[in-house]
Amino acid sequence: MSTTTNIAVRPAPAATDLQDLRVDSERQALPKNRYTSRAMWQAETEKLWAKVWQWACLVDDLPEAGCYAEYQILDQSVLITRDEDLQLHAFHNVCMHRGNRLRTGSGKNADVACRYHSWTWNLDGSLKKITDEEGFHNLDTSCLGLQTVSMDVWQGFVFINLDRDAEPLADYLAPMDDKLGAYRFGQHVRTRSATMPVGANWKTVVDGFVEVYHLHAIHPQLIPFLDDVNTTYDVWGAHSAMYQPIGIASPRLADTSDRVVLDSLAEGGSGYSGKMLRKSPYFSEVDGVAQMQEGVTVRQAVIDAGRMDEASLGLDYGELTDDQLVDDYHYFIFPNIILNVFSGHFIASRIRPDPVDHESCFFDMFVFDMLTDEQKAARPPSKHVILEKGVSVGRVPDQDFTQLPTVQKGLHSNGFAEVLLSDQECRVLAFHQEVDRYVFGTERSP
Ligand SMILES: [Fe+2]
After folding, report:
1. CA atoms within 13 A on the CB side of 336
2. 127: buried, middle or exposed (CB in 10 Å: 19+, 13-18, 0-12)?
3. Does any domain span residue 46?
4. CA 427 to centroid of ligand 1, rounded, Å
5. CA within 20 to 30 Å of 25's CA: 3, 90, 128, 166, which one?
6. Distance from the CA of 110 to the center of ligand 1, in angstroms?
């Protein structure tokens, strides 16, 4: 016997009616075509990515005069240079003669010579040479410098904005700058970094990295030592944060004893916190079983290990609180930067839409560590790696990157109309409301 179930599916809006793709803030609902519509992606290209501050590269990528670094966002390429006076500049990465892209990747040159016909610019973007200039007529050379884009530096990160009338970067980041200053990101060193393609719209991927509602389901190995349920959130307009307690088991589990916390955190693959636990003098292993000194909690052991690192390595963690030494403080800088921050260690991730396929994006992952001068000197130069789709980047992100393309596929289902968000996904909602502010000119919710 067959049964019929009434399923109240709202009809999907027509993909061409862009206005219908706006966030429904009252119901905390997102029309699915926000993620699948080419028109939405096009609108974001023109109204968001052309207007918003973006992390382009690191100050460390340009250590000397003549160094350059390219940043690609959609079909735009920006060239950042360091001139002889060590000043940084940012330009559209294009020859003013025939439109050739001037540089790819990063490197070092005395000037910026186009490889097509040798038109050349100084490192500050001023015009240096037009090959056989006498053959051109009515050239206004005053307009032929490289075309500048807005640029500024924050804690070792070089930001650009394609809008030359952009608000100052400091104003843009102000809501969270005072929260992040104590970490001294600029004193950390990039120790590993990679770029990988992901088969999902860029917003699908951002969504997957700004909430912990999914942890118990796709990262079950985390919740014995990470309290997803009591994670707290802050939203500051465009930007947001969540604070994930580490060293405390999720109340979703039947057994939340410190034994469970200890075993799970000591297990290989539990990341930076597990590494810090193993550094603690209170921690030991007997016959492969993790042991903690009587009366010391796992949480306290990780905090103390952090303080010991600070003292013994001559590091300075500034004004970090005990919670900041053990918990995962997780920040989102609109539109596409995720910072997973610990003591003396953080992971910065960046999600960039693919320039051709609106249902693909690039995930750039950078690992930073605060190192002593000795450690810095002994360290081989870190090389950025470009990975094929599906190459492993670690157990937790692998779990995310397995799931997110299936979400993107599922969004096309005729049986599905809109994404529904709980309060645990408040940062997802805030992110989409900010996208709408750029794309549709809507006001921020109070
Ligand atoms: Fe995840």
Report:
1. 24
2. middle
3. no
4. 14
5. 166
6. 44
Output the CA 208–ligand 1 centroid distance in Å: 6
Structural domain that includes position 152: 54-165
Ligand 1: centre distance to CA 241 (Å): 15
Cα of 217 from ligand 1 centre, angstroms: 9
Distance in Å, CA 53 to ligand 1 centroid: 25
CA of 370 to the centre of ligand 1 (A): 25
Which of 165, 188, 217 is the last residue before a domain boundary?
165
Determine the distance separating the centroid of ligand 1 and the alpha carbon of 158, expressed in angstroms.
27
231: in domain: yes
79 with 196, same domain: the answer is no
CA of 401 from ligand 1 middle (Å) equals: 8
Q: How far is the CA of 61 from the centre of ligand 1 (A)?
A: 29
Token representation of residue 423: 């309060």
User: What's the gap in Å between 137 CA and the centre of ligand 1?
Assistant: 59
Q: Is the Cα dihedral 271, 156, 352, 111 positive or negative?
A: negative
Dihedral sign for Cα atoms in the order 315, 321, 327, 331 = negative
Distance 92 CA to ligand 1 centre (A): 35
Supply the DSSP symbol for 382: P
Q: What is the pLDDT of residues 160-204, one digit of tens each?
A: 999 999 999 999 999 888 888 888 888 899 999 999 999 999 999
Report yes or no on whether pTM surpasses 0.85.
yes
pLDDT digits 0-9 by tens, 67-113: 999 999 999 999 999 999 999 999 999 999 999 999 999 999 999 99
Q: Cα(227) to centroid of ligand 1, in Å?
A: 14
The answer on 159 and 115 residing in a single domain is yes
- Does the bond joining 335 to the residue before it have cis omega, within 30 degrees of 0? yes
Distance, CA 207 to ligand 1 centroid (Å)? 10
pLDDT, one tens digit per residue, over 138-163 is 999 999 999 999 999 999 999 999 99
Tell me: do 248 and 382 sit in the same domain: yes
| Total domains in the fold of the chain | 2
Nearest C-alpha neighbor of 410 from the set 208, 195, 196: 208
* DSSP annotation string for 167-181: PPHHHHHHHHHHHHG
Cα 184 to ligand 1 centre (Å) = 26
